[in-house]
């Protein structure tokens, strides 16, 4: 059993940012992620917006961290080499009432939040910028610093840069037990597969499951419930250079049309409270809501060809806001929970806040040799230019490069996110069988052991076993 | 395998039925011709299916496999040659040709393109995935359900059954005329596929049957493809015209695409023909090329 200073539980955008910022200090740190890769939960299914926080509730920790993050983005994306598109957003009012709300509520809130570069746009100015916007448009609000980011890349870059500074990341490490020894002042953290880790401090960044992780130390102070958001992805070329936002109502921020860093557009999300923390199903109703919802501001949404639908679950806390700070059950156990909808956007400021808070409290010294960048690997031999993914023109060499990275993928989706393979029209049906073969060879496992993304998501079964192993029920609900 | 020459009369992209038929014809005409294919083996989609009854497909020795056309540089003037960019393990290469014949076949629209709702577990794949997995000694599942809208899907189901899978159901739209194969259940006629269910792996498919009833079919794999499009990736970025009606590359009556010196034949032009016209089209396209080049 190895003893660390800090164990971070959860490899989403929040946990990895905490790890990255903790790696600035002379501490032994490790992150434990339940799934085979980082960014497998809420962080992967969202609008991918690096949001300024112009509409946050002024005075909250969320608004403060959004303001701090806003200042950090330009340097951070440079250091981490993360694709980032500061495309700006336009909130379009399509009724007189909405136009009143923009002028009398949204604009003053933005100014109060320090987002002082917003500007009201006339109907003509909105149409000039976004020619395909609804002809009902009355006016709009331009938010120039709203940006787009690749959530996978950002999460991975936090983790890889931390690894470059000596941090460890353990995947497929589901935390099942935590005990605290008062005399040694150490936590003992056990994983489902029997690994044991010890640490002086634990950071709980387990997202949707942070209440379950809290309960492992007897902390029952909050609950997390999932709120589903469904999305539709289209690869059509739209005349939308900015994020197109509806005017929010009391219930939700509404359904938006968002460009994607690598091309294409995302329509969504819906907002429906659900029970099951694994329920990422898309529904016919959700699809219709997305199309009808966006059609109010963007009528062409009804004609778009979708290449993919997906759903994500936001972590809604029973306290109504962020839960950031020591647990009432144990002050060495630090919650970073209930980050409902702005996880990506607050991650720079939130990670720094948590790391600096812990460091100042415990008197940790900074590393003089800390590198904020992701370590760069230089390939020593020429790469194979054989095309593996036809749709996206991804070569074997590019896949091998990903496999040699500080946090190498072990799943098909891991390869997909790092290279872009499988993301084209054929949805990976052509290249996936070869990628499985490459992964099996690299992981040292059988072909049939390779999974798509989460635990148990095997893509194939063995032909030789087929007759012998007939499961009674084939439901493997995790 | 010899290296590709830097200059050629004709390069054929895709060594399936159409490409191979064209190759034989062009070679016999005395033109310098070479053939490349993205796949590890020549033969196109039908190489997986002996049921199709195509005998000669993989016997063509002179195909540069795992070699992919990744783009073209259209000629500036009528007399210029066409530049074709190729990518292979050894590196990237540019070949100058009088004519490029694209015979890259068709691809399937999957579950996502057809907006089938539900969860996103592993185990929902197209026949393309199935046949490649079988080549690696693996099945997509032991108890698959298959959606069939062509004989190709029946052949795929039949190969799964031969490999030890217990095909739970073959789903078909009303009026679909399908081949029969031993070891497969009779087709279940359905109105629609409504949802996929499962956690990490698929556990069931929900359909509406002919009587309008919702039925949940338990399975551990769902083989689904509906609708096809021409594989146009060799011409990606060239601005080549696509035919919205067929979902394939647009050509005139003589297999000429919208780009000078670029011809196309087979299922990349007519995806729904499912190979029935590929061989004849390949030969006919070759004749046009010979006429165009020899004058």
Walk me through this protein's architecture.
Chain A has 478 residues and is of the alpha+beta class. In chain A, 28% of the residues lie in helices and 23% in strands. Chain A has helices spanning 13-22, 61-80, 96-112, 123-129, 151-164, 210-215, 284-295, 343-362, 396-403, 412-419, 432-443, and strands at 2-9, 29-32, 49-50, 84-85, 89-93, 119-122, 139-143, 147-149, 168-170, 175-181, 186-191, 196-204, 224-234, 243-246, 256-259, 265-268, 272-273, 306-317, 323-326, 333-337, 387-389, 394-395, 461-462. In chain A, the strands form five sheets. In chain A, strands 1, 2, 9, 10, 11, 12, 19 and 20 form an eight-stranded mixed sheet that branches. In chain A, strands 13, 15, 16, 17 and 18 form a five-stranded antiparallel sheet that branches. In chain A, strand 11 (186-191) and strand 12 (196-204) form a beta hairpin. In chain A, helix 1 runs parallel beside helix 5 (151-164), helix 1 runs parallel beside helix 8 (343-362) and helix 2 (61-80) crosses helix 8. Chain A is globular, with a radius of gyration of 23 Å. Chain A starts with a strand and ends in a 16-residue tail after the last strand. The model of chain A is unreliable at 466-478 (pLDDT under 50). Chain B is an alpha/beta fold and 295 residues long. Chain B is built from four helices and 19 strands. Chain B has helices spanning 17-28, 127-135, 151-162, 278-294; strands at residues 7-13, 33-36, 63-64, 68-73, 82-88, 91-102, 106-108, 124-125, 138-139, 144-147, 169-172, 188-198, 202-209, 214-218, 221-223, 228-230, 242-243, 248-249, 262-264. In chain B, strands 1, 2, 3, 4, 5, 6 and 19 form a seven-stranded mixed sheet that branches. In chain B, strands 8-15-10-11-12-13-14 form a seven-stranded mixed sheet. Chain B has a two-stranded antiparallel ribbon with strand order 7-16. In chain B, strand 13 (202-209) and strand 14 (214-218) form a beta hairpin. In chain B, helix 1 (17-28) runs parallel beside helix 4 (278-294) and helix 2 runs parallel beside helix 3 (151-162). Chains A and B meet through helix 7, strand 18, helix 11 and strand 23 of A and helix 2, strand 9, strand 12 and strand 13 of B. Strand 23 (461-462) of chain A pairs antiparallel with strand 9 of chain B, so a sheet runs across the interface.
């Amino acid at each position: 059993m190895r003893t660390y200073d800090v164990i971070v539980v959860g490899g989403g955008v929040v946990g990895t940012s905490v790890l990255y910022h903790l790696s600035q200090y002379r501490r032994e740190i490790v992150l434990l992620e339940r799934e085979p890769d980082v960014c497998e939960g809420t962080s992967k299914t969202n609008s991918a917006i690096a949001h300024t926080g112009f509409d946050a509730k002024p005075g909250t920790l969320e608004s403060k961290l959004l303001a701090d993050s806003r200042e950090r983005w330009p340097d951070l994306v440079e250091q981490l080499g993360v694709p980032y598109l500061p495309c700006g957003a336009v909130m379009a009012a399509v009724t007189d009432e909405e136009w009143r709300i923009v002028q009398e509520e949204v604009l003053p809130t933005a100014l109060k939040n320090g987002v002082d570069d917003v500007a009201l746009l006339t109907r003509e100015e909105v149409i000039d910028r976004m020619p395909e916007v609804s002809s009902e448009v009355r006016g709009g609000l331009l938010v120039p610093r709203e940006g787009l980011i690749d959530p996978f890349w950002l999460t991975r870059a936090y983790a890889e840069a931390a690894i470059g500074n000596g941090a460890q990341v353990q995947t497929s490490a589901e935390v099942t037990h935590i005990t605290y020894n008062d005399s040694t002042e150490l936590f003992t953290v056990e994983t489902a597969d029997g690994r044991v880790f010890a640490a002086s401090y634990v950071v709980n960044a387990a997202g949707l499951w942070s209440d379950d992780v809290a309960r492992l130390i007897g902390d029952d102070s909050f609950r997390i419930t999932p709120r589903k958001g469904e999305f539709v992805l289209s690869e059509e070329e739209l005349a939308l250079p900015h994020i197109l936002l509806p005017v929010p109502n009391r219930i939700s921020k509404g359904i938006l049309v968002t460009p994607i860093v690598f091309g294409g557009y995302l329509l969504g999300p819906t907002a429906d409270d659900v029970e099951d923390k694994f329920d990422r199903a898309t529904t016919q109703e959700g699809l219709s809501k997305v199309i009808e919802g966006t059609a109010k501001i963007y009528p062409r949404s009804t004609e778009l060809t979708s290449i993919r639908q997906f759903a994500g679950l936001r972590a809604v806390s029973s306290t109504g806001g962020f839960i950031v700070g020591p647990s009432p059950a144990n002050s060495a156990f630090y919650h970073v929970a209930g980050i409902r909808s702005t996880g990506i956007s607050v991650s720079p400021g939130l990670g720094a806040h948590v790391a600096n808070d812990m460091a100042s409290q415990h008197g940790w010294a900074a590393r003089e040799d800390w590198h904020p960048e992701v370590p760069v690997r230089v390939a020593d031999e020429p790469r194979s230019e054989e095309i593996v993914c036809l749709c996206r023109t991804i070569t074997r060499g590019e896949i091998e490069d990903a496999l040699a990275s500080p946090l190498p993928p072990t799943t098909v989706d891991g390869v997909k996110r790092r290279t872009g393979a499988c993301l084209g029209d054929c949805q990976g049906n052509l290249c996936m069988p070869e990628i499985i073969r490459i992964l099996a060879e690299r992981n040292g496992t059988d072909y049939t052991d390779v999974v798509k993304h989460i635990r148990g998501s095997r893509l194939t079964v063995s032909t030789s076993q087929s007759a012998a192993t007939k499961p009674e029920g084939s439901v493997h609900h995790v | 395998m010899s290296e590709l020459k830097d200059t050629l009369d004709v390069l054929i992209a895709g060594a399936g039925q159409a490409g191979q038929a064209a190759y034989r014809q062009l070679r016999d005409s005395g033109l310098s011709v070479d053939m490349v294919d993205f796949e590890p083996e020549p033969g196109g989609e039908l190489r997986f299916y002996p049921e199709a009854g195509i005998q000669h497909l993989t016997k063509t020795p002179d195909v540069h496999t795992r070699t992919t056309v990744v783009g073209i540089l259209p000629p500036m003037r009528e007399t210029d040659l066409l530049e074709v960019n190729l990518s292979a393990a050894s590196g990237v290469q540019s070949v100058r040709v009088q004519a490029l014949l694209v015979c890259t076949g068709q691809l399937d629209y999957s579950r996502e393109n057809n907006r089938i709702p539900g969860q996103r577990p592993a185990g929902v794949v197209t026949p393309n995935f199935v046949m490649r997995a079988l080549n690696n000694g693996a099945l997509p599942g032991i108890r698959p359900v298959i959606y069939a809208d062509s004989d190709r899907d029946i052949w795929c189901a039949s190969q799964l059954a031969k490999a030890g899978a217990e095909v739970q159901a073959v789903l078909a739209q009303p009026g679909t005329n399908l081949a029969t194969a031993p070891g497969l259940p009779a087709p279940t006629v359905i109105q629609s596929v409504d949802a996929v269910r499962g956690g990490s792996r698929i556990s069931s498919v929900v359909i509406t049957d002919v009587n309008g009833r919702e039925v949940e079919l338990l399975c551990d794999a769902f083989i689904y493809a509906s609708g096809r499009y021409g594989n146009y990736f060799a011409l990606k970025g060239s601005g080549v015209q696509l035919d919205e009606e067929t979902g394939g590359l647009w050509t005139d009556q003589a297999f000429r695409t919208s780009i000078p010196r670029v011809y196309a034949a087979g299922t990349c032009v007519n995806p729904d023909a499912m190979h029935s016209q590929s061989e004849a089209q390949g030969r006919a396209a070759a004749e046009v090329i010979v006429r165009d080049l020899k004058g």
